[in-house]
Amino acid sequence: MIKKWGLSAAALLLTAAVILPGCASKESPKEAISSSASKALTMNSYEMKSVLTVNKLSIDAPAGANDDTTGMVLNMLQNADISINAVHQSEPMQTELTMVLNLKGDMAMSFNIPMVLTGDKMYVKIPSIPFLPLPETVVGKFLELDPQELAAQQGVAVTPGTTIDTKKVQDLSNEVLSTLLGEYDEETYFKNVKPEEAGIPEEVDAKQVVQFQVTNSNVKEALTILVNNALPKVIDVLNKEEYKELLKIDDTKLAEVKQELQSGEARAEFDKSVADLDSYLTVNNFQLNTALNGDDFPEYQNLLMDVVVKNPEQGQNINLSLTGSNQYSKINEKQTFVIGIPQDGDIITMEELQQQFGAMSTY
Question: What residue segments make up the domains of the chain, in order of their start?
Answer without folding.
Answer: 2-47+163-328
